[in-house]
Amino acid sequence: MTHLRRPAVVLAAALAASFLAAPGPATADRADTARVNEKHVIAISVDGLNPRALNRLGRTGAPNLNRLIRDEGAGTVNARTQLEMTLTLPNHTSMVTGRRIKASKGGHGVTWNDDTVTKTVQQAAGHEVDSVFTQVHEAGGTTAVYATKSKFWLFERSWPKAVDKNVIQVEKNAAVVKALRSDLASDPATFSFVHLGRPDQIGHRDGWMTPTYLKAVAQVDKLVGSIMAQVESTPSLRNNTVIVLTSDHGGIPGTRNHGIRTNREDYRVAFAFWGAGVPHADLYALNPDRAKPGRTRPGFGASPQPIRNGEIANVSLDILGIGPVPDSLWDRDQDLAWK
Ligand SMILES: [Zn+2]
């Protein structure tokens, strides 16, 4: 069991709760006492996926993403990124911590987007920061990261005891999926995080929504399809595995840029569940506690909130039967419905 330093106020609250709960069943701190259930979660982030690509490629060019998001799963193509930045590492850190970005507002503080900064998330935030990895690990589960950019070393560096396996193959999308599929067949982690970077890589090189960008999305579509096929063909996974898919940001058609956080092409992303127990549904129809944002960019004060990419940490923990990441923001009540 990993010992985690927690803010004193949380300890005090937990202590108070345990007095209040006594002498009945232990309900004081779900995150510390719950054990993971028998399920598996595979979280997939398609880096730089502008949902327009799903329409442009159609069901012929992107059969698997369309299947997952629109035809079989519970999905939407109108979720939102983080508000402060539409950049890769800050958004992915929100996905695994459930926090916003800005450190002075309780965010994780990761505002850089390369691998020249060697700080941890905790150093960026200025205090302890837990994650989906620490929660799964504490609850007796295992975790794995499969990523295609070197900056993703941040996760293992920040949670060395909670990231059990870390596969980073720079710009090798097929290789990381091969490693994942091999692990799924033999010894699947409770929680796997997969980052597929090719659409972003080609978007920066040739421009978003260009023919080569669309080809990159089609390539990733095949890889996502191979993960779905692996789940379906593995008896120990078929009936208890949920794939959760989203993106860190989109990208502006015809440009090589996705850094304008107020541009809808950048802040609109897909968010979808697929797998055991997941109905075929529009994710907003399944979630009256979330509001379709239309073309807008709702702020922190909006109520209800739109579905956001940062919800992936706490909803994954919810699927696994354990409580939210301490001091997180997105889906902290774990009320995002996935079934
Ligand atoms: Zn990028």
Automatic annotation (TrEMBL):
UniProt-listed Pfam families: Phosphodiest
Signal peptide range: 1-28
UniProt keyword annotations, A-Z: Signal
InterPro entries linked to this entry: Alkaline_phosphatase_core_sf, Phosphodiest/P_Trfase
Domain of life: Bacteria
Presence of the UniProt keyword Chaperone in the record: no
Protein name: Putative AlkP superfamily pyrophosphatase or phosphodiesterase
